[in-house]
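Re: your question from the hallway

Yes, I did run it. Sequences:
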Amino acid sequence: MLTTTADRERTLHVEHCMGTVFTIDIRDAGQWTGAVCDVVGWLHRIDRIFSTYRPDSDISRIRRRDMQVADADRDVADVLDLCVQMHRETAGFFSALWSGQLDPTGLVKGWAIERAAELLRMHGSRNHAVSGGGDVQLAGQAAAGRPWRVGISDPHDRGRVLSVVTGRDFAVATSGNAERGDHVLNPFTAALPRDLASVTVVGPSLTRADCYATAAFAMGANATAWLEAQPGHEGLVVSATGSVTSTTGWTGGPMQDPQE
Amino acid sequence: MRRVVLAIVTTVTSLVLLLSFKTHATSSLATPPAASATTGNTTGTSAAGSTSGSTSGSSTGTRTVTGDTIDTRFGPVQVKVTVTNGKVSSVNAIDYPMNDPRDQQINSYAIPVLNQEATQAGNANIDMVSGATFTSEGYLQSLQSALNKI
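Structure:
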């Protein structure tokens, strides 16, 4: 049974996969059970192929040299190509190699979410959001005449929203080390980035926004300047000491509450 | 080429209360259209349903649905979903582990963030949250069991 709540205006589904929570939120009227099933199936299929925790996944077999990339699911080659592209675009700060081991995990979740949103579009949905582990891809609007609103959680106080991004057809990704264990390393020094608490990137594609957020987080103090140079993307950077900087397109000035 | 306008509004407020947002400024930025090819075979999968728990209130207006109590290694987790006129209006953890100081630290932010993800329908201010989230498996299972009963 699908754990979908549906009414005439909206279909909401929460799915546990890849060690996190995915939300599929369709804001078009109608019956979307088939579309939700497809997305849920897609997410679990990607987990089966790419999980580094499953010894039988294609990625685990490739790591053991039990399998060639050419013999793996065709999505593996696509993802590895994207990893190379992101490596190039981020001056090497995004890397699919971890301790010398192939690990495209840093790209797969955002890419899977972006593709999930594309699946919903192919099913005819024009207004939806797909999120997973704090990253989100949005299409259309939240309601007639109302754009989507995405709150950016304060890494130093999860109960607070630092900023709200509103719009149509965009993606928001946040990278940090505080919440699910330390999972971002500087690929050049193998050190944990200590300068920053979180980096949020807004752009058209979640795959790219997510990789940019991860790369900028690993860059530390240079994150905001690097994001400023990326066309079509805006960034919000929270330092380990709590100071907030952003790219110039992310207006609103200092991110402080005037009442504080 | 579609011109995407993102109005970015700066606010500091509470995720839990979700009441008032103060607008500092807005701007626009152009982003290229998202282009991606979609292929791939998908298969439907199903999540285990749940039959226990309780439902109270009438079928119209406001009613609450209580999810199963899920035992996690940190302790029991149980959520309550409030449905107003057929829409989820709030999700609250009515029981979650508070014994260990570390659990407390985890839950003090995990529950509000997860609440937010689950209560978008009834919230006019924020539809989604971006931030690195700690996710609680027990919370999710109890939430799913409650959603199954709506």
